[in-house]
Structure formats: C-alpha cells, structure tokens
Give the backbone structure.
Amino acid sequence: MAKLNENSSLKEIMDTLENTTKEIEDNKVIYDNAITIVDKKANFNDSTNVLNILYDDSYIYVLKASKLVKTDLNFNVIFSISYSNFECFCISEDYIYASTAENIYQINKTTGTINKTIANNFVNDMCFYNNILYCYKSSTATMILINASSNLFSINLTKDCASLSIKSFSSSGNIKVNSTGIYVLVQDSSDIASIYLLNHNLTQKIASAILRDSNAGRKIMLLNNGVYVSCNRGVMGYPGEGYFNKYTSNLSLQIKLSDSKYGNLVGLDNNSNYIYATKGLREYEHAKIVKFSSNLNELDSYEFEGYGSPNVIYKNYNIYVNGNIDNKTIARLASTKKFYVKREMF
C-alpha cells in the first residue's frame, strides 16, 4: 500500500482509500448486539458451583462452594484456598474476608495466608465498610458486626434485629453499606419482603420500602446516590413492585421497570456511569447482559450462551460472568464496545 504525503495525487489518495476499505471488509468481525467468549476457566480444578465473583484493580476473586481462587484478568491462578463449605466473601484493600459453615476468616490478599480466624461462627453474607464487617445470618433476624482490623478481628456486636421489625434476612440477597447506613433485604415482622435502611450500630430502622414479592434472587447495588434493586421474578399489581427499581438513598421509589422482560435480572455491576445486569436464561431466550443508564433506560443488550449469574464484573470493556455453559464456569466475554477486529484475534 502506497504511503500518502502532502504531494500525493487525488488518484493515489482514492486508490489507497479503496484498498483500505477492502482490507477492512476482508478481515472484520462486527460485534454489535452480541458478545463472544474470549476465554473461560471451567472449574479451577474444582467441580463445585461458583457462588460469587468479585474484583479489584488487577485481580478477580472467585468463590466456589469448596474453593476460593484469586486470578489475574486472564484467569492465571495466583492462589487458591480449599474448604468444604464456603458461604460468602468480600474484599477490602488488604484482605479477603470469607465465611465457611464453621468459621470466619481474614485472609491476606497478596499471599492467601490466613491472618485471623473467628472460630465456631458463620454468616451468610457480609460487606466491608470503614473497617467493619457487616454480616447477617439468613433465615434469622441476627446481624453481626466484626472489627476487621488486622490486630483485632473480633466480633463487636451480635444483634437480634426482631426489635427493628425484621423476621429474617434474605437467604439469596446481599447487604450493602455506605455512609448513609446499611441496606439489606428482609422479611419484615408481617412476613412481607422489603428492603431496609438501618443505622450503622443497628439501633434504628431509618427507612424501608415494600417489595411484596419474595426476596429470592434479589440484588442490591449502590451507585452515586441511588439504590438499585433487581429481581429475578416479580408479582405485579403491588405498590412499589417492579422487576428493577431505583430508590433514593432514603428508599423513596424513583423509577420502576414493570415490563416482564426485566423479570429475570440477577447480577449487577456498574462502571460509575452505566449499569450492567445479567439476565438469566429463560425459555426461548439466550442469557443476556443488559446495559442501562443510571435512570434505568435500556441502552443495549448482549446475548451469550449460558445461564444467569449471581454476579457480573464489568472491567476494562470486558464482562466477566459465571454460569456460562454451566454453573461451574467463569467466562470472560468480548468487549461490549462496537468495534472492528481482525478475525484471527478470535
């Protein structure tokens, strides 16, 4: 191909453009409304299901029923820790916190070594905020606050939250904490599914919103000043009910998506501007990643072969989900930007 310069003739310019266009057409793969698997890790030498996936700046953390694995973004394993019955985990700048059915662990993020253990106790979900682990035991009204500092790592408070009109915490939901308080999915004292905002020392219910339907499969995500709640199913006709809702920080309903096409959203992530939600496999449909604005306008969707995911990671224009092909697999999916690439890249 001739190199162009300021003295090139019009014919040379036109010939170069024509040849360039032909080269692009011969080699392009257009990724528009679909995503393609770049690579995947079937089981990290472990056949149990993936429970959750988290990430920080450079690494992915995968919790399986019997193994906790740290990998780089290309699925190269940094370390793995094996126990028979993991329940949940979360991460801070320096540590991984994980609970099995018997113990709660503080784990060095760099080496994978156990730093501290709280023996003979367990929780079903946890969230790290301001050097405290906020935890609950599902199907009960019990919350536990743990001092997460490296030299202590001890239980500060075990609280029966029945006095806050909580009958039980969701067995498949999650807990989120920020400066406003603790957001958690509950069955209230009347056995109605709700989202509660509690103060940090668990002495007060600040606000609540009725969800009506079961909390099964619901997920909470915090983005800027908004509180987002997705649901893998819904009951229509109840005030406040929706398949995907946005609330203010004090749980006043701002937006709800009642269209049944959003009835199977599970995992949630964001890149500070846009929201990415996994839409699980339904009859006659592919699984999807749905991209929303912060005001829940659907902007795009990307189909992939597989199931839904308890979590989704959006990082560097790549999406990571588990549940592709089966629930034992974590997959990295091609960029969701619309772009041209040479075929041999894949």
Remarks:
- The radius of gyration is 23 Å.
- The helical segments are 10-27.
- DSSP finds one helix and 31 strands in the chain.
